[in-house]
């Protein structure tokens, strides 16, 4: 496969990637950031996979069951047909709690004829370090390793266990199943129980989608993106992951390979803002609690990212025994960027706190804690906004006065003032307004480049940067302001390549990027739409949608030349920006229709 032609399944505890041919190539159990059970994605020789193999007479088609996270792969030679329904169980139990066991179910649905297939079942525990041995037991197939540390998984199946392990041909006469579990089952499954599990999980997802608004345009893409964002949320703590994978390269054969199975405050806060706009309160509430739990000391600075179980130390190491995706080394686990200072996270977090207070004011139980956090953020911004930082793109070398970071420091004050108004804390407002105006003026004085007729990447720099486009959506500047309009046009001229955007073009720590950062193209489309170039924006949007994979999923990057998906996958950033664009287009449509009906009534 030359593209990231994978579907994601999950249950808000962990996730798995399944190729368009039905091969389970990436999965970590029991949780998102555990070591891998299957990692063919990162090494197709030793990584391990769980494959359903058919002969060449079969064609293979894959799609999600509508409005669910159940992935259906159909194998057909015209007469002999079966389907694999892949999912991770998630449903409400009788006590009202959500049941999310660390399990993958592959329900094999018989359709017609006498289909035949073989199974390649090859788990490689602990990132395939050392040997994994597989044994047939009376009730299950057990795989274990104790090279690095002891670990086991259990496979339950209705098929002949000997044939499964040896990869011998299985003739399908009726529906059956595989259940891969991290824990040994107390009650043995059977096909009837597995079918019930499938239906319960289906009902959960259908109900979840039912609570999402319907939009006139691009509704299917909004729903698939919303479901994907939900799959990247971690129920236990409220964390939201940047992506479900590690070390998928931004460029094949290069070293921009990072572990994204963590909660970046920026990415997660942007996701929460979008998901709560879609009406899903619980995800937002859990995330706010995650933040509250992370900030015990009033003067404690926020890290840019945390482990999904609130870990503060995310030591980065490389797994040199793995070849990497398409040979792109190194494979990394952990992320050293957690030590970086990025001043924009305070504004992004303040924006989310304000949004939640406006949307769910009567439901916020943590008002006092949120007010304490608000005051703490203002204190930190007041003391540090004039210092340089690493910026949104995590330059690993020098610190600079990045425009985006300064704008978000302004956002922190602007939203803190609004929060103070909500809580009736008038004594703070006057004091904070002085600082808000000071930061605003500083940006106008130092970030505008007269020669480029644009706000630039950092103070005194001629380089342009797509992140500056967000100044309008954060309310720093009006869409029709001549300075914003000319910034959009300057960025298009300098950073656009066949409709795809560079983040920036100045060489960074690793040279000039050869792939487009997907979210930047969505930001650009949104900005075009806002400045009034609506037809052009929608045309670009539709073209960008055509670069998704066969299931409508996006990774972090798109190669400028080949248009193949690159970078970690699926990427929360890309899908939240897709939703924002699509909602803006739909809202404009609705406003136009309301105006039209109003004119007719006149």
From TrEMBL:
Signal peptide location: none
InterPro entries: 6-hairpin_glycosidase_sf, 6hp_glycosidase-like_sf, GH15-like, Trehalase-like_N
Record carries keyword Hydrolase: yes
Organism: Sediminicola luteus
Record's keyword annotation contains Transcription: no
UniProt keywords, alphabetically: Hydrolase
All copies of domain Trehalase-like N-terminal, residue ranges: 8-133
Pfam families the UniProt entry points to: Glyco_hydro_15, TREH_N
GO molecular function, one term: hydrolase activity
Domain GH15-like: residue ranges: 218-582
Name of the protein in its database record: Glycoside hydrolase family 15 protein
């Amino acid at each position: 496969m030359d593209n990231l032609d994978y579907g994601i399944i999950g249950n808000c505890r962990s996730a798995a990637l399944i190729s368009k041919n039905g091969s389970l190539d990436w999965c970590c159990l029991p949780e998102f950031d555990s070591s891998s059970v299957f990692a063919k994605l990162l090494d197709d020789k030793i990584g391990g996979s769980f494959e359903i193999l058919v002969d060449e007479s079969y064609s293979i088609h894959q799609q999600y069951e509508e409005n669910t996270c159940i992935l259906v792969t159909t194998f057909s030679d015209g007469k002999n047909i079966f389907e694999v329904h892949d999912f991770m169980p998630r449903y409400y139990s009788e006590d009202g709690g959500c049941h999310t066991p660390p399990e993958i179910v592959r329900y094999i649905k018989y359709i017609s004829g006498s289909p035949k297939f073989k199974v390649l079942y090859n788990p490689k525990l602990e990132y395939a370090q050392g040997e994994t041995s597989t044994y047939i037991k009376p009730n299950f197939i057990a795989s274990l390793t104790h090279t690095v540390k002891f670990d086991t998984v259990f496979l339950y199946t209705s098929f002949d266990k000997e044939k499964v392990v040896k990869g011998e041909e299985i003739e399908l006469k009726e529906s059956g199943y595989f259940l891969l579990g991290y824990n040994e089952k107390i009650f043995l499954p059977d096909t009837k129980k597995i079918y019930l599990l499938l239906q319960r999980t289906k009902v959960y997802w259908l109900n979840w989608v039912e609570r999402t608004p319907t939009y006139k345009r691009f509704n299917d893409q909004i729903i698939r993106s919303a479901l994907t964002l939900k799959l990247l949320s971690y129920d236990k703590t409220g964390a939201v992951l940047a992506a479900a994978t590690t070390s998928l390269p931004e460029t094949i054969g290069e070293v921009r390979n990072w572990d994204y199975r963590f909660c970046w405050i920026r990415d997660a806060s942007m996701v929460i803002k979008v998901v709560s706009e879609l009406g899903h309160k619980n995800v937002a509430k859990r995330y706010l609690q995650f933040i509250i739990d992370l900030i015990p000391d009033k003067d404690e600075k926020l890290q840019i990212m945390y482990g999904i179980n609130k870990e503060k130390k995310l030591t980065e190491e490389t797994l040199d025994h793995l070849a990497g995706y398409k040979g792109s080394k190194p494979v990394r686990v952990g992320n050293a960027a957690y030590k970086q200072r990025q001043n924009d996270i305070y504004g992004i977090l303040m924006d989310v706190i304000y949004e939640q207070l406006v949307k769910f004011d009567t439901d916020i139980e943590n008002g006092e804690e949120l007010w304490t956090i608000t005051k703490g953020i203002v204190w930190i911004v007041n003391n540090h906004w004039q210092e340089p930082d690493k910026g949104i793109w995590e330059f690993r070398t020098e610190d600079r006065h990045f425009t985006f970071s300064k704008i978000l420091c302004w956002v922190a004050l602007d939203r803190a003032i609004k929060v103070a108004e909500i809580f009736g804390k008038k004594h703070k407002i006057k004091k904070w307004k002085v600082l808000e105006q000071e930061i605003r003026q500083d940006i106008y004085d130092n970030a505008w480049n007269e020669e480029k007729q644009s706000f630039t990447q950092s103070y005194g720099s001629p380089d342009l940067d797509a992140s500056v486009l967000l100044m309008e959506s954060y309310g720093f500047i009006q869409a029709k302001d001549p300075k914003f309009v000319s910034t959009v046009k300057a960025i298009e001229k300098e950073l656009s390549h066949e409709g795809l955007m560079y983040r920036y073009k100045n060489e960074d720590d690793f040279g000039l990027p050869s792939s487009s950062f997907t979210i930047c193209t969505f930001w650009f489309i949104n900005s075009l739409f806002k400045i009034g170039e609506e037809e052009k924006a929608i045309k670009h949007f539709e073209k960008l949608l055509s670069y998704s994979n066969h299931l409508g999923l996006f990774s972090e990057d798109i190669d400028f030349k080949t248009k193949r998906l690159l970078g970690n996958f699926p990427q929360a950033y890309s899908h939240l920006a897709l939703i924002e664009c699509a909602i803006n287009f739909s809202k404009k449509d609705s406003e136009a229709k309301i105006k039209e009906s109003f004119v007719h009534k006149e």
